[in-house]
Amino acid sequence: MLVKLRTRKFVAHASAYLDALSAFAGDECGASIVAIALSMPVLIGGMGLAAEISYWRLHHRAMQNAADSAAIAAATNNSSNYVSEARGVAAQYGFPNGVGQITVAAANPSTAPGCTANCYTVTVSDDVPLFLSQIVGYQGTAPSGGQRSTAITATSVATTIRPYAYCILALATSGKQGITSHGAPNTDLNGCNTMSNTDAVCTGHNLNANVGDAHGTNSGCGITQVSGVSTIADPFSGLASSIPPDNCNHTYPQEPTTKNSPALPPSNQLFGTYAFGATKVLCGDQQLIGNTTINDTVLVIENGQLDTNGNTLQGTGLTVVFSGANNPNYQHIPTGNGTLDITAPTDGTWSGVAMYQDPSLTKNVDISAAGNSPTWDISGLVYLPHSSVTLSGAVNKSSQGLRCFEMVMDNITVNGTGDIFANDDQCDPAGLNQTKGGNRGMLVN
Asked: What is the pLDDT of residue 367?
């Protein structure tokens, strides 16, 4: 009897245990915890790798910006210290050579990818420590002080663009905007290059200038527009010391407001062909009363204007110089509705100079209708350092000269059909050492 009782109890306990075990086996509560626990290392590693890859990309972009700028700087420097130039620029971008694991290597190979000459390469390298990405087994590419890291590099190639000539140089010593053009769709500088020592603003048309440089901001001037260029010092001011002395004995006849009422004295009226010799000083206003030819002369007009008066002044080897006192009673400009057909001398002190305003003059030097009144047919330099010039007509080459022209002024406004003939690399044989921009680095790869 006792045995049967114990057997029944055992069977009851066993049955209860089996029921509990069956219920546990069928209960799915908390099952996901196991799966999450097992997958957590992979999830953490994947998230860590994604975060680190994003950081590597950002770091590489910053390094690439540094390499690009450093390569351009090295190519622009174009001298024996280009390595220091490149490393200095890279440091400004946050990658100083030799700090931590950063290296900045610059080279000047004969050729490089995308570059066949005047090549400069810069490679910026850095070792970035690994963190969460090691959870998935990524061990990086380089050890860094005992810690695993990955190496990141950025390489850039630039070439040196050799100096190019300007046909317009705005010195802007007055502080005014150097180059201005608003809504002049017919202007055409025929691919010549321009430079402003302040800003340059062209709306509606780029002037068809090949390169437009500006020390300040260039907005719209030139097919290629460059801002932040170093200023250019006045390259022709030194010629002032070669202006012949004033021998006018303080006598400077002036044209009346109404022409020829009364007429200028005969000594101030020009007509026909003159053989003045190497230099000739004329006193006061000069008026053409007919077509006039003056060759091989530095013609100095003291305290006076040159009134073409509807006629043509033709000269080969001719330089017209405006000089005198900085007095508001005197004009120091060409005027009239005629033509200036001037070919500058090709040698000597005034080589390449067709027209020259004494840089000591700041009053009555503005030219309001360049190329129009009078017409300009000029081969050589027109130097107007303190003049505000309005170019509203065409500048053509002289009838006897080569295709070479440069105009230097304080500031210029290009209006309407302002046009300058194409300069065809003829300034060297024309005797003009044309103003050029400095070396320029250009990114090629």
From this structure: 94
